[in-house]
Amino acid sequence: MKIAMVGSGYVGLVSGACLADFGHDVVCIDKDPGKIERLQAGVMPIYEPGLAELVAGNVKAGRLSFTTSLAEGIDGAQAIFIAVGTPSRRGDGHADLSFVHAVAREVGEHLKAPAVIVTKSTVPVGTGDEVERILADAGLAFPVSVVSNPEFLREGAAIGDFKRPDRIVIGAEDDFGRQVMQEVYRPLFLNQAPLLFTSRRSSELIKYAANAFLATKITFINEIADLCEKVGGNVQDVARGIGLDNRIGSKFLHAGPGYGGSCFPKDTLALLKTAEDYDAPLRIVEAVAKVNDSRKRAMGRKVIEALGGAEAARGKTVALLGLTFKPNTDDMRDAPAIAIAQTLQDAGVKVTAYDPEGMEMAAPLMPGVTMVGSAAEAVTGADAVALVTEWDAFRALDLDRVKALVKTPVLIDLRNVYRPDEVRAKGFAYTSIGRP
Ligand code: UDX
């Protein structure tokens, strides 16, 4: 089947490359000529494990190509995916749909034969209806079907998530849409991936509800961690104890510095806006967004506490290890490290930092932070080391060496990577999240 993927960002590129790998003939389209040129030369615009190899293999096999021309790219395609960005609109937090609408208009201008238009971008409920209206305005003389097919990819694990999904959700209003989508994902049901057909609006809502629920789960365990610190419990034991109940499940119960990234903060906000518009307030999600927001700065204060309080912290140096919102990505969007560094700097603390992939994106977001080329360099002479993102490289630090390099052995482990007794036995003052 010929498939067009409009938007060659994170979602479009991973989805396009995986669909090509299933044997489809895929054209990835993007307005940015520099990006397309680099992709044609095999250079990825993002860091995602396995992506460069997947793209190269499928380009070589003749199943994957790149173009800036939407008219050319969609020619002959039976399925046209819209995978452009839906950032938070400045000012009001609603999802900005201008890119999605612009693609729909352009598709309407150039489409020459029946096709299914698939929204893969995360879009508020009702966007499919609007895309349908835009296409109807184009006065096409043949049928088109507008379908919602949200993605549930995690950065850093996106290819595995695409190829072995827990489920595929398809919101379609007619048989044409359902049939074409069944063809698109046929290679996956051979792997028994459950395919869930719903109405278009339900499908649009599933994406937001899933992300809001996951954000709630994380925020819940983060607050339980705070309580553990007060009452002398261990959040890891509590998480395990509740997670073994199948109704709860053990995933997404790792307490930490608060969730970040391109999805949870933006999508919870957009969902709240929709809820407000329809006068069906989502009070739990409101609390989650607020609690998570304040948690990031609270983590900065936790580091200051470990330095002995505000007075003692002034003029000292803290080394941040890991800056991205999670490991295996270079994505800095809404990363807790940004607020942590800011809180430290506001208190007169100097900050040095190292991240294996995120330094380039981090530098402009963290003015005044000294970026260095290695963990060893970051900790040298530091009064405290804060582990912010659990990159593998920080999971097995040589603590004797760290101790020899720092000024004072203080470790604040915001991801609970280390065992308190082991680190303390090495002579560190050690603080983690929700553990004695
Ligand atoms: C998420 C969803 O998982 C994915 O399905 C959706 O399509 C996009 O949003 P992603 O943003 O890539 O994916 O990251 P994810 O691995 O879900 O982590 C999100 C944030 O939550 C990170 O900041 C992570 O550190 C944090 N997190 C996650 C925790 O603090 N504790 C956990 O137990 C899990």
UniProtKB/TrEMBL annotation:
One of its GO terms (biological process) is UDP-glucuronate biosynthetic process. Residues 319-420 form the UDP-glucose/GDP-mannose dehydrogenase C-terminal domain. It is an enzyme of class 1 (oxidoreductase). Pathway: Nucleotide-sugar biosynthesis; UDP-alpha-D-glucuronate biosynthesis; UDP-alpha-D-glucuronate from UDP-alpha-D-glucose: step 1/1. InterPro entries: 6-PGluconate_DH-like_C_sf, NAD(P)-bd_dom_sf, UDP-Glc/GDP-Man, UDP-Glc/GDP-Man_DH_C, UDP-Glc/GDP-Man_DH_C_sf, UDP-Glc/GDP-Man_DH_dimer, UDP-Glc/GDP-Man_DH_N, UDPglc_DH_bac. Gene3D superfamilies: Cytochrome c1, transmembrane anchor, C-terminal, NAD(P)-binding Rossmann-like Domain. The keyword Transcription does not apply. One of its GO terms (molecular function) is UDP-glucose 6-dehydrogenase activity. Keywords: NAD, Oxidoreductase. SUPFAM superfamilies: 6-phosphogluconate dehydrogenase C-terminal domain-like, NAD(P)-binding Rossmann-fold domains, UDP-glucose/GDP-mannose dehydrogenase C-terminal domain. Pfam families: UDPG_MGDP_dh, UDPG_MGDP_dh_C, UDPG_MGDP_dh_N. The keyword Isomerase does not apply. The active site is at 263 (nucleophile). NAD(+) binds at residues 30, 35, 86, 122, 155, 266, 333. SMART domains: UDPG_MGDP_dh_C. It catalyses: UDP-alpha-D-glucose + 2 NAD(+) + H2O = UDP-alpha-D-glucuronate + 2 NADH + 3 H(+). Substrate binds at residues 152-155, 207, 252-256, 260, 326. Its EC number is 1.1.1.22. Belongs to the UDP-glucose/GDP-mannose dehydrogenase family. This is UDP-glucose 6-dehydrogenase. It comes from Novosphingobium piscinae. The lineage of its organism: Bacteria, Pseudomonadati, Pseudomonadota, Alphaproteobacteria, Sphingomonadales.
